[in-house]
Design goal:
Keywords: Iron, Iron-sulfur, Metal-binding. This protein is of the alpha/beta class and 727 residues long. The chain is 35% helix and 16% strand. It is globular, with a radius of gyration of 25 Å. It binds ligand MGD (2 copies), iron/sulfur cluster and molybdenum atom.
């Protein structure tokens, strides 16, 4: 009998466009993945990583059964043995030291699973209010979220460019041709950007490197970590040259005069030497942003991970506001699910978040907690520093912080001090190899999903949900199920969990499974296009999405505008511009110094065939004997007698690495670009990744509390001072 192959529509959850995919499945097992031609937005596009994911699902190096570390390495154990021991040891730690002794780090892929996100958060917070919660956001998004919290009163109100309607798109610190967009869910983003040019508009890329995106559009080179100066000078010009419709801006925002005096000293002539962008270009850009009716500035990773990420992000939004481009068609807009009562949810959530921001501080640096999480750059010190709330038990799910946070070696060593460490992952990575247990988890195609995290960043309002399209590989379990199991085991010993387990038990007796899935269903039903629990015939719910609309559905042609008053969590319903913390950051700009002996600046670099640290074990992605390379300007190389392919030593005030270098003219002189996510050193089980090796660029970044960004706890990952030598 011929094998029966089913083709199941679903979507990719490696990165943010969430491209439509068709999984060919035989007997519950994945045979192949191909792009979904019937997906309304990605319409037949998927990148190499999306296709290669079949190799991750079926990877022979994948962890299939729970692993426990023994004297001679990892050994397989049963789920029951693993969970029993973890539950017992965790309860003992909790009894002795309280919830402050427990930490959880959730990495980037966690954000792509609603159930995982809820599980990690509820579990950690459920332990008690002293527990530690870290996410990859402090290397990624916290500065963006805190800028939103300051401006709009609520961290989750994040404006995005109105991609499908704008005529001037200024993109700072982002390379969407390679990254496919971030804080901006837009399948086929490159095509959408070309559309702007086709309709007579412009796309301007502000970046120290003539990136793949800058090559395809207009490039304005900027010295790393100076974007806030450029933005202050743009604001200066707009105000000083009388371009601003002050009355209109004052209808949207409080503190306009405060902002005007904040940017007064920053003439474009005074910032040019630092930014490398001359005064005439600044004036022209300011004028274009004001006079083009549909214009937007957008910033992403490169503007989030500098020394003043929150300030830079705040200023991007301030430029959009002052230029008259906030919350208008083609400008910087708030995409939202438009859930019933969203306005009051924003007020309530904003109040809770702002309160925790004021009150909860890192015990190491005093940095305020950003959306309930602590700086991951300080995780090692949270483990090694004695005193109350010293971490003794650590969970890591969907993260590889030994490679992704500053000073991986420090963190690696710190893991050795833990009394209990548990990884939820499907690989033995540089991080999970340090743990006492590795619990095998399902990949995205082995679980149902609704991409909750990304609903508010959609350039075209869209909904898609999927069922699991495969049966779990080996004994893999979902994170939510693992946390549930652990919570049940703790319930007997930890009061918070007893209450939690009890409530769920009672609900179950009434036939209600109070799972994250139920919450997602309620969200879909109460949001734009939803069925309002039956009140709106033909409306959406989670089951209908997954079963009847498997390719997804566009719920509105464009992002709604004129919604600022709903997006703002302050009772004033207006943007709040005046903040002492922002003034402090501006103050610090003039006091920045660079230590002697580090004449160059390091920036990051994402590659089309990598996803942070975790896709280097796919033969398809690693073909051609791929290796990590740093990029350096030809003139800087020549000055140091360095030629293409040379191994060079890169030294920052914080560490040293050795990498091969490629020379290029597509960089500002003085800038060196180094990809992150490499540095596989044979401790993990991923054989191909180990062979490719590379260097961990985060040995060059700082885990010193003084280098953690003051307002949001962000790691400092760009513009790091370095020198480069032939070893
Ligand atoms: N192929 C691939 N795609 C990915 C990922 C991946 O690893 N590989 N990772 C995913 C993740 S986790 C994320 S968060 C997104 C990120 O996606 P993006 O936000 O697009 O980030 P990057 O691709 O890192 O591009 C950042 C750009 O900022 C520039 N830059 C560096 N410093 C500065 C600066 O000081 N000022 C300015 N103006 N520019 C600067 C860099 O040169 C670089 O071109 O990508 C996602 N997509
Ligand atoms: N120098 C420098 N450092 C950076 C960056 C940079 O640009 N420069 N970028 C930063 C950014 S934007 C980010 S987001 C972080 C990422 O930081 P992390 O999230 O800590 O690191 P990843 O490499 O993404 O590791 C993801 C891990 O999750 C596992 N995994 C994949 N899918 C699943 C799943 O469904 N469930 C579970 N449980 N595990 C899964 C993978 O096997 C892998 O071990 O790194 C940051 N670090
Ligand atoms: S662009 Fe991102 S979401 Fe789309 S197929 Fe590639 S990895 Fe998957
Ligand atoms: Mo990220």
């Amino acid at each position: 009998m011929a094998p029966v192959i089913e083709n199941k529509p679903t979507f990719c959850r490696i990165c943010e466009p969430l491209c439509g995919m068709v999984a060919s499945v035989e007997d519950g097992r994945l045979v192949a993945l191909r792009p979904d031609k019937e997906h309304p937005l990605s319409s037949g596009f998927a990148c190499q990583k999306g296709i290669a994911f079949a190799e991750v699902v079926n990877d022979p190096d994948r962890v299939r059964r729970p692993l426990r570390r023994g004297p001679t390495g990892f050994e397989e154990v049963t789920w029951d043995e693993a969970m029993d021991d973890i539950g017992g040891r965790l309860s003992a730690i909790l009894r002795r030291h309280g919830s402050g002794a427990v930490g959880w780090y959730m990495g980037n892929p966690g954000a792509f699973s609603y159930a995982h996100t809820f599980a990690a958060l509820l579990f950690t917070k459920g332990l008690g209010r002293h527990s530690h919660y870290f996410t990859a956001s402090s290397q990624d998004t916290n500065s963006r979220l805190i800028a939103s919290q300051l401006l709009y009163g609520v961290p989750t109100s994040v404006p995005i460019p109105d991609l499908t309607r704008t005529d001037l798109l200024v993109m700072m610190g982002t390379n969407p041709v390679v990254s496919h967009g971030s804080f901006l869910t837009a399948p086929r983003i490159k095509d959408r950007m070309h559309d702007i040019v086709k309709r007579g508009g412009r796309v301007v890329i502000i970046d120290p490197r003539r990136s793949e995106t800058a090559t395809a559009f207009e490039w304005l080179g900027i010295v790393p970590d100076t974007d806030s100066l450029l933005l202050l000078s743009l604001l200066h010009v707009m105000f000083a040259d009388g371009m601003v419709d002050v009355a209109a801006v004052k209808r949207q925002a409080d503190g306009v005069d405060w902002l005007r005096s904040l940017c007064r000293p920053f003439t474009p002539e005074s910032t040019a030497a630092s930014t490398g962008i001359d005064a005439d270009s600044v004036r022209a850009l300011a004028r274009d942003l004001v006079t083009t009716p549909r214009a937007a500035v957008y910033g992403r990773l490169g503007t989030c991970v500098g020394t003043h990420g929150t300030l830079t992000t705040y200023l991007i939004d301030a430029v959009n506001l002052v230029a008259g481009n906030l919350d208008v068609p083609g400008g910087s807009v708030f995409s939202s699910m438009h859930t019933l009562g969203a306005r009051w949810q924003n007020v309530a959530m904003g109040a809770v978040m702002r309160r925790s921001y004021r009150r909860k501080r890192s015990r190491i640096s005093g940095t305020p907690s950003a959306i309930g999480s602590e700086p991951a750059a300080l995780m090692a010190k949270e483990i090694t520093t004695p005193g109350e709330r010293k971490i003794r038990a650590m969970f890591v799910s969907a993260g590889n912080p030994v490679l992704s946070v500053p000073n991986g070696e420090e963190l690696e060593a710190a893991f050795g001090e833990l009394e209990l460490s548990v990884a939820l992952d499907f690989y033995v990575t540089e991080t999970s190899t340090q743990c006492d247990y590795i619990l095998p988890v399902t990949t995205m195609y082995e679980r149902d999903d609704f991409p909750y995290t990304f609903q508010s960043f959609q350039a075209t309002p869209f909904r898609q949900a999927t069922k699991a399209v495969l049966t779990p590989v080996g004994e893999a379990r979902e994170e939510w199920a693992i946390v549930e199991d652990l919570a049940r085991r703790l319930a007997r010993r930890v009061p918070a969990f007893a209450a939690y387990a009890g409530v769920r038990q009672v609900l179950r007796m009434f036939g209600v499974d109070a799972s994250p899935r139920l919450m997602m269903d309620a969200l879909v039903r109460m949001s734009e296009g939803g069925d309002r629990f039956g009140l709106r015939r033909g409306g959406l719910n989670l089951r209908r999405l997954a079963e009847e609309l498997p390719h997804g559905v566009v719920v509105a042609p464009h992002v709604r505008t004129g919604v600022l008053r709903q997006a703002v969590g302050y009772l004033s319903r207006r943007v709040r511009l005046a903040h002492p913390g922002i003034a402090d950051e501006v103050d610090k700009l003039s006091r920045r110094t660079v230590p002697d002996g580090y004449p160059l600046r390091m920036v990051g670099l994402r590659e089309p065939r990598s996803e942070n640290s975790w896709m280097h074990n796919s033969p398809l992605l690693m073909r051609g004997d791929r290796r990590q390379h740093a990029l350096m300007h030809v003139d800087d190389a020549a000055e140091r007698d360095i030629v293409d392919g040379d191994e060079v030593r890169i030294t920052s005030p914080f560490g040293t690495i050795t990498v091969p270098v490629l020379t290029t003219k597509d960089l500002l002189p003085g800038v060196v670009a180094v990809p992150h996510g490499w540095g596989h050193k044979g401790t993990g089980s991923w054989r191909l990744a180990n062979r490719a090796g590379g260097a961990n660029v985060n040995q060059l970044t700082s885990s010193d509390p003084a280098d953690v960004e003051a307002l949001s706890g962000m790691a400092w990952l760009t513009g790091v001072p370095i020198r480069v030598e032939r070893p």
